[in-house]
Design a protein that fits this description.
412 residues; alpha/beta; four-stranded antiparallel beta sheet; 15 strands; 33% helix; globular
Length: 412
C-alpha cells in the first residue's frame, strides 16, 4: 500500500486546482461552461498535465479529454477514472475538478515510480456533466456510454446557440458523436472520486467514504391556479389564494418526505403572479425535486404528494397540475468496487463508511454499461456549487491515497 508519506504532492495538486479556477467567465467563483473558450483553455491545460503524467492524450468525438496510460497488456480491458471540468455558475473549484486532478496525480505517481499495471488506465475529463449551458446533463459521459441522442445536438443555450453549432465553433463535427461510444467489453470498470457535497463525512469526522449508489430523481413543474383579487376587499375566508394553497402543499411535501428515511424532497423554485403586494396571488408556478436510492419509495412518495396536493386544491377551490420534467432511476455501485474501496479505507484507519449520493455524477451514465465505484472526499460544511466550496489539504491527500490504492487493488 502507498502511504501518505510516499505520495505527498500536495503543492502540485493545489497549484493545479488554483490554475483551473482562474479559467472562469466570472470573477466570483468559477464559471466554466461547455464548448466555450474557457472550456477549451481548461482542456488544453489538463491535456498538458496528462502528458506530464506519462499519458497519451486525445479528444473524443464529444470533446471529452482522454489520457491513456498503457499497461503491460495493451489489449487488457481499461480502467476508466474520471469526472468533469464544467461548472455551474459561480461554482467552487473542487466539484468535478478534484476527481480529474487526483486521477491524473495517481497516474503520475505510477509513472514517476515506473509502475505499469497489467491493465491500461484512462483518465477522462468529461466535457459537460452539469448541463449549465444547454440544460442537458451528462453529455460527455452519456456519449461514452452510447446513450447520447441525436436530438441532444439541438439543445439550445440562452443565446439560441445549439450544441451542434457550439461544437462546430470549436472545430468539431457534431455528426461524428457516435464515435465517442465505447465498447463495454473493452472496459474493466469506472472509478470516480468526488467531494461529498454534503455534511455527513464532516459529522462523522472522516476524510473519505465509499458510495453505495446515486439516488434516483423525479423533477416536476407544478402550477397552482386560484383567483387574483384586491388584497383589501376580499375576505380571507372567501379567497382562492394560490400562494396560501401552495404553502400548504409545500408543508405536505415536507411532512411526507420525513416519513421515508431514504427520501429527500425539495420545492426550490416559486413564481408568484401577479406578484404585487396589494393583490391576492392568483397563480403560482414552481418546481418539485424528489430523490431516493430506492426507486419504489420515490414513486410511492410522489404519488402521495400529488394526491394530497390535489385534495388541498379541491378544498381551497384551486386547480393543481403537475408536469414531469425529468426522471432518472437510482444507480447502484458495483459491490466489487465498494468492497475494495472499503478495504482501503480500513487500511487507512477509517471506518468503511458507505454513503448514498443525492447529487448526480458522470458515474450515473457510465454505470449503464460497466461496473462503477465512487470515492467521496469530505468538504467543509457540505457546501458545494458555491464559491466557498472547500476541501482541506489533509482530506485531499487522504483522497489521493485511497484512490491510488484502490486503483492498485482493482488492477492487481
Amino acid at each position: 500500500m502507498f502511504g501518505l508519506s510516499q505520495i505527498r504532492n500536495i503543492d502540485r495538486i493545489i497549484g493545479r486546482l488554483d490554475d483551473l479556477s482562474k479559467i472562469s467567465l466570472t470573477e466570483r467563483g468559477v464559471t466554466r461552461l461547455s464548448f466555450t473558450k474557457e472550456s477549451e483553455e481548461a482542456n488544453r491545460l489538463v491535456s498538458h498535465w496528462m502528458e506530464e503524467a506519462g499519458m497519451i492524450v486525445r479528444r473524443d468525438a464529444l470533446n471529452n479529454v482522454v489520457g491513456r496510460y498503457e499497461g503491460t497488456q495493451e489489449e487488457a480491458p481499461v480502467l476508466l477514472i474520471g469526472s468533469h471540468l464544467d461548472t455551474v455558475v459561480e461554482a467552487g473549484k473542487y466539484d468535478g475538478i478534484l476527481g480529474v486532478i487526483l486521477g491524473i496525480e495517481a497516474v503520475q505517481i505510477l509513472h514517476e515510480k515506473g509502475i505499469y499495471p497489467k491493465h491500461p488506465i484512462e483518465v477522462i475529463a468529461f466535457c459537460d456533466e452539469e448541463g449549465t449551458r444547454f440544460h442537458t446533463t451528462l453529455l460527455g459521459s452519456r456519449a461514452i456510454a452510447g446513450n447520447f441522442l441525436e436530438e441532444d445536438l439541438e439543445a439550445v443555450d440562452k443565446d439560441g446557440v445549439t450544441l451542434a453549432k457550439a461544437m462546430r465553433e470549436i472545430g468539431m463535427d457534431p455528426s461524428l458523436y457516435r464515435l465517442a461510444a465505447r465498447d463495454p467489453n473493452s472496459i474493466l470498470g469506472y472509478l470516480e472520486l468526488h467531494i461529498e457535497q454534503g455534511p455527513v463525512l464532516e459529522k462523522k469526522n472522516q476524510s473519505c467514504s465509499s458510495v453505495s449508489g446515486i439516488a434516483g430523481q423525479s423533477r416536476l413543474e407544478f402550477r397552482v391556479k386560484g383567483s387574483a383579487g384586491h388584497a383589501g376587499t376580499v375576505p380571507v375566508a372567501m379567497r382562492q389564494d394560490a400562494l396560501a394553497g401552495t404553502a400548504e402543499m409545500i408543508q405536505a411535501v415536507e411532512r411526507i418526505a420525513l416519513q421515508y428515511e431514504s427520501l429527500v424532497a425539495t420545492v426550490g423554485k416559486l413564481n408568484v403572479y401577479p406578484g404585487a403586494s396589494n393583490v391576492i396571488p392568483g397563480l403560482v408556478e414552481g418546481a418539485l425535486d424528489l430523490r431516493s436510492i430506492d426507486d419504489a419509495t420515490r414513486e410511492v412518495a410522489l404519488k402521495r404528494i400529488q394526491e394530497e396536493c390535489q385534495q388541498i386544491a379541491n378544498r381551497r377551490k384551486l386547480t393543481c397540475e403537475f408536469h414531469l420534467v425529468m426522471e432518472s432511476p437510482a444507480v447502484h455501485c458495483s459491490s466489487h468496487f465498494i468492497n475494495i474501496i472499503e478495504s482501503v479505507l480500513e487500511e487507512h484507519h477509517m471506518d468503511p463508511l458507505r454513503l448514498v449520493s443525492g447529487a448526480g455524477h458522470d458515474a450515473m451514465a457510465i454505470a449503464k454499461i460497466v461496473d462503477t465505484g465512487m470515492i467521496f472526499v469530505r468538504c467543509k460544511e457540505g457546501l458545494s456549487h458555491h464559491p466557498d466550496e472547500f476541501a482541506s489539504e489533509e482530506d485531499i491527500e487522504a483522497g489521493l491515497s485511497v484512490l491510488l490504492n484502490t486503483i492498485l487493488k482493482l488492477l492487481a
